[in-house]
Write a structure and sequence with these properties.
Helices cover 48% and strands 19% of the residues. It is built from six helices and five strands, in the order E-H-E-H-H-E-H-E-H-E-H. It has helices at 11-22, 36-46, 54-59, 72-85, 99-110, 126-136; strands at 2-7, 26-32, 65-68, 88-92, 116-119. Helix 5 links the parallel strand 4 (88-92) and strand 5 (116-119). It starts with a strand and ends with a helix.
């Protein structure tokens, strides 16, 4: 069973936390958010503990993977911290708004064997596929 901590307890983070908590092959190892009431609300709904900081998540031996659902401007730093700590990563899109920063993150990821996945789930939506076909035409 994989033990996953969720970073960011806004709308999408809360949804991910609930789905992880309900999954038979996963355990919600904890949640963390800079807005303590958001973390407390997700904790109350899932029974997961609240981590006091991102650093505490990355240092925990009870966490195998992290799901990054924080504000966009924090994604790249958290992704690199997760990889450095050996935690598997699912990061919500985008990695960053700066292509230079995205490229630095990609180089960090390329130099490791830690599994990293980005949450580009909407690329298969009919509307998005139609736009792609129109661009390619």
């Amino acid at each position: 069973m994989i033990r996953i901590a969720v970073l960011g307890c806004g709308r999408i983070g809360a949804m991910h936390a609930a789905n992880i908590a309900a999954h038979p092959r996963a355990a919600l190892a904890g949640v963390q958010d800079i807005h303590a009431p958001a973390a407390a609300a997700v904790s109350a709904g899932t029974g997961a503990p609240v981590f006091p900081s991102e650093e505490a998540v990355f240092a925990s031996a009870e966490v195998d993977a992290v799901l990054i659902a924080t504000a966009t401007d924090t994604h790249a730093d958290l992704l690199e911290m997760a990889v450095a700590s050996g935690k598997q990563v699912l990061c919500e899109k985008p990695v960053d708004l700066s292509l230079e920063r995205v490229n630095r993150c990609a180089a960090t990821i390329a130099g490791t064997t830690v599994p990293v996945q980005l949450g580009f789930v909407r690329r298969f939506d009919p509307g998005h596929r139609a736009v792609r076909r129109a661009i390619e035409a």
